[in-house]
Amino acid sequence: MNSPADPTPPPDQSRPEYRNEGIRTLLAMFDHGDPDERLRLGQILQGLQQSAFGVFLFVAILPAFIPVPGIGGAVSGPLVIMIGVQMLFGLRRPWLPGFIGNRGPRRGTMHKFLARIDGALRRLDRMLKPRRPLLLVPLPAHALTGLLLVLTGLLLSLPIPFTNYLFGFQLLLFALALLERDGTLMLINWIGAVAAVVFFGFSSGQLVEYVAGLFQRWF
């Protein structure tokens, strides 16, 4: 009689690997481990493929939800702009300078943030799915998303009162569209971002003044 095969050891649950299986699976790993552990961006994005920009954007907008005036835009805005510029120029995976790749949120901070939006995430997760890849994959669509992220990141950086949560939520939807590869949600994001740029940027003149000031300093 043959001896029974040795049972397969269960997988290590202490640090699950990243897999491109959507928002719930990707973000579940933030619950595992020491809450005081610093999650470095370089480590978070290592090994990710099509979800990398979505995860990076999700982490980058976290400061936008801190209820302290000025902090959210000053931290999240430049990160969002950097993500948008890379997508605008056709990069398919984020490039991180060392001083950013070695920084990141604490695991406990991510857990608290996820707990706050858990209900909304669960409802959205039931509706989101991979669809309309032509609004995500081709270079023109990828670049348009990048351009709108740059403009939204600029708006987030501006001292426009009571808009951090608004732009943060809009960027959260961009992150979800990238994570779930949902072209329908991305189209909604495009429309919403254009409306935000027109209403908050050009109608108030703040975005125009800010960009003009940048050109004057650079040239």
**Biggest sheet: strands, sense, closure?**
none
Helical residue percent? 55-70%
Q: DSSP helix count?
A: 11
Calculate the mean pLDDT score and round it: 79
How big is the Rg? 19 Å
Strand content: under 5%
Give the ordered list of helices and strands: HHHHHHHHHHH
Beta-strand segment tally: 0
Computed structural class: mainly alpha
Distance between the termini: 84 Å
Shape: globular
Low-confidence stretches: 1-21
Describe the structure in your own words.
- The chain is an all-alpha fold and 219 residues long.
- The protein contains eleven helices and no strands.
- It has helices at residues 23-28, 41-45, 52-60, 71-88, 98-101, 107-116, 118-127, 139-157, 164-180, 183-202, 206-218.
- It is globular, with a radius of gyration of 19 Å.
Features:
disordered N terminus; mainly alpha; single chain; 219 residues
Task: Quickly describe the structure.
This protein is mainly α.
